[in-house]
Every structure is written in C-alpha cells, then in structure tokens.
Write a structure and sequence with these properties.
0% strand; elongated; 85% helix; mainly alpha; single chain; 4 helices
Length: 123
C-alpha cells in the first residue's frame, strides 16, 4: 500500500468522525432546528467524505484533485453552518471544542492530501 493510500484513508476517517459527531449533535435538536440548519449541516459534513471517496474512484488525478477541492469546499460550508448553529444557541462550548479539534486536524490533512495528488501514476 502506498503512503498516498494511507493519507487518503486518514483524511476520510477524520471526515467520517466529523460527520458522525455532527449527526449525534443534530439528533438532539428540536424539529425546527433539525429541519432547517440541521439538514444543511449534516449534508455538508457528509459531503466531505463522499467527495474524497468519489475522487479516488474517478481514476484520473485531475478528477481526484477536483473532488478533493470540493471536499474542502464542503468543509468550509460545514464550518459556516457550525458558526450559525453556535450563534443560534444550538451548540454548547463542549460540542464546539470537540468539533473544532476534528476540523483543525482535518483541514491541514486535507490540504496535504491535495498537494500529494500529482499528475504521475502511483506504483
């Protein structure tokens, strides 16, 4: 197995961890919050890992890089919804700290993974 594979796996696992934490939090919200911001934040968080996986499956380095960039955009969108949720008192400080730690680990690894995907085939 190549180092890129393990790097991609680490980034994917972190994206799953973030999405799962968000899911657990949103499950506890009232119906209005779930139906509005909850659906948006769950979709954007789930899209991070989905885009990473889809990029790997596309077969070309250009497509893979494009999907990694989309995953990065979904991470940005997720952060937007987290800020909105916090402003609307849907997240407490402990939840923010947990999510912030995952995001602060995921973001640089996602950027590093993007940089590692080149134009030459792996062995």
């Amino acid at each position: 197995m190549s180092s890129k594979y393990f790097q991609q796996l680490r980034v994917y696992k972190l994206s799953e961890k973030l999405a799962d934490e968000i899911w657990i939090i949103v499950e506890g919200w009232n119906l209005f919050a779930k139906d509005t911001i909850g659906k948006q934040i769950v979709r954007s968080a789930d899209s991070i890992g989905a885009n990473i996986t889809e990029g790997v499956g596309r077969g070309s380095y250009q497509d893979n890089r494009r999907f990694i960039r989309m995953a990065r955009g979904s991470l940005n969108e997720t952060q937007h919804w987290l800020r909105r949720a916090y402003q609307r008192n849907l997240l407490n400080t402990e939840q923010v700290d947990i999510l912030k730690k995952i995001i602060n680990d995921l973001r640089p690894q996602l950027n590093s993974y993007l940089k590692s995907v080149g134009n030459v085939p792996e062995e």
